[in-house]
Design a protein that fits this description.
The protein has 454 residues and is mostly helical. It has helices spanning 6-19, 39-47, 59-62, 72-78, 80-86, 100-118, 127-152, 184-199, 214-227, 231-242, 284-287, 295-299, 332-345, 349-360, 374-377, 381-392, 398-406, 440-445, and strands spanning 268-270, 273-277, 301-304, 310-313, 325-327, 330-331, 416-420, 423-427.
Length: 454
């Protein structure tokens, strides 16, 4: 395959994931003639939003934010893949169906690896430009591996992570590498290393929010350390992110105006989109968590009396995205809520309330807002934070990730039961169904990866 220009190159990578003959879905066959020569070539590769923005969709379906009993009309609208994911089935894809999340995320990794392998030796660029490009590639690679680990690998347990089965860890674009999985601890070590190496060569904020930045790297490290239960480090990186004074919108400003487009949304620190669209239906228990004066209930959640017959997620529609592709990247509210959770786990009531109120006062109109007090959260401080995360992150991937890690926190995870076509299914805390199955077509071509327990 001879690539004529950089744009064609970025498009062919996606197709090659589906057509390469021997290391399919994780690596791309190389050609001895390359068109990536100048530093600008690598910058163009990063600037192509299609290379890194579209990611995955199924965590929106598998989480308990979706209703426990789905109307037949809604399940038919979803299609069979979403139906199987909704029930945490033994398999999600059949025949020649592609796992778009696995394909997309390993495509991100492959392109990042191409950049890291060549940019420092590229022509006509300064060292600072090259280091910045490499840093952005590392953040994209880290985000992809984190996403893969929280869908296709076990729940991270710090007492077991060195023996837990992780993922194929590919760090170069070479054709022939071992696709055997490395321990889960090694995957997270690489994620953290990539982000720490990247930080010093990133601007505080990006010119456009689909480019990685220092604040995005801090936010992702806060998320990663929360997931690995290193709460002290999670709080430290949340503090570093907050020190940069990121934007939190006052939603009251948009009650009579259009919500910003994704590219203009200053709450979005790293733009990633779901690889498909989903409206709902939302779990009534989730909807009941909202105060009736909460502007998120008015702007992010709507009603559908027809197909979905209940509450649905509508935030993307607020800025004209009628396909309902969810925003699944990094955002300012997550920083504040990560910090709040760490404080709650330390039983620091005053600091937890400070973080919650900093966010919540921007989610109500001035005339309706009442600050939280210790009396409001005294029943269970951590549970209040987790409820606030559900209110803020409706329609994103974060609830699925929270459900996974909360299985290690005793009563903070509640079994989830669903009914479809008259049959019930329950997800328990110790269920292997918290890990997505590997697509059989991937395993047929790469059997050394191995299937996840079902």
């Amino acid at each position: 395959m001879k690539i004529k220009n950089i744009l064609l190159y970025s498009l062919v990578i996606s197709g090659a994931l589906l057509t390469s003959s021997c290391r399919k879905y994780v690596e791309i066959d190389q050609n001895d003639k390359r068109t990536l020569k100048t530093t600008d070539d690598y910058r163009y590769l990063l600037n192509n939003k299609g290379n890194f923005e579209s990611s995955f969709v199924l965590p929106l379906i598998t989480s308990d934010n979706i209703a426990a009993d789905v109307a037949l009309s809604a399940s038919l609208a979803w299609g069979e893949i979403y139906q199987r994911a909704y029930l945490w089935n033994d398999y999600f894809y059949i025949d020649n169906q592609q796992d778009i999340a696995w394909n997309n995320l390993y495509k991100h990794i492959y392109i990042a690896n191409e950049i890291l392998a060549g940019v420092m030796g590229s022509q006509n660029g300064s060292d600072a430009q090259k280091l910045n490009i490499a840093a952005e590639a590392r953040v994209h690679r880290a985000f992809a591996y984190f996403s893969l680990a929280n869908q296709y690998a076990p729940i991270y347990d710090p007492t077991k992570a060195s023996s837990q089965q992780g993922l194929p860890l590919l760090l170069t674009p070479d054709l022939f590498q071992s696709l055997s999985r490395v321990p889960l601890s090694r995957v997270y070590e690489q994620i953290i290393e990539d982000l720490n190496v990247a930080i010093e060569n990133l601007p505080n904020f990006p010119t456009f929010n689909y480019h990685p930045s220092k604040i995005a790297a801090y936010a992702l490290l806060a998320r990663v350390y929360l997931t690995t239960r290193n709460f002290e480090e999670s709080g430290r990186y949340a503090d570093l992110a907050m020190a940069l004074d990121p934007t939190v919108y006052n939603l009251e400003e948009f009650t009579a105006a259009t919500y910003p487009r994704l590219i203009d949304d200053k709450e979005v620190l790293l733009s990633k989109l779901s690889a498909g669209f989903i409206r709902g239906p939302l779990n009534p228990d989730l909807v009941a968590l909202y105060d009736q004066n909460d502007l998120r209930l008015k702007m992010f959640v709507g009603t559908d009396p027809n197909t979905y017959k209940g509450y649905v997620y509508i935030k993307p529609q607020s800025n004209g995205n009628f396909n309902y592709n969810a925003y699944i990247g990094l955002s300012t509210p997550e920083i504040y809520l990560n910090r709040a959770e760490v404080y709650a786990r330390q039983n620091n009531v005053s600091k937890t309330l400070e973080m919650l109120n900093l966010l919540r006062k921007k989610r109500f109109s001035t005339s309706k807002y009442v600050a939280l007090t210790a009396a409001d959260v005294q029943a269970d401080l951590l549970q209040y934070v987790m409820d606030e995360r559900r209110r803020e992150f409706v329609g994103t991937d974060l609830r699925w990730y929270d459900m996974r890690r909360l299985t290690l926190d005793g009563n903070y995870f509640k079994p989830v039961t669903r009914t479809l076509n008259g049959k019930s299914y329950t997800l328990q805390a110790n269920s292997p169904r918290f890990v997505y199955p590997i697509n059989q077509e991937v395993l047929t071509l790469n059997p050394e990866i191995g299937q996840n327990p079902r």
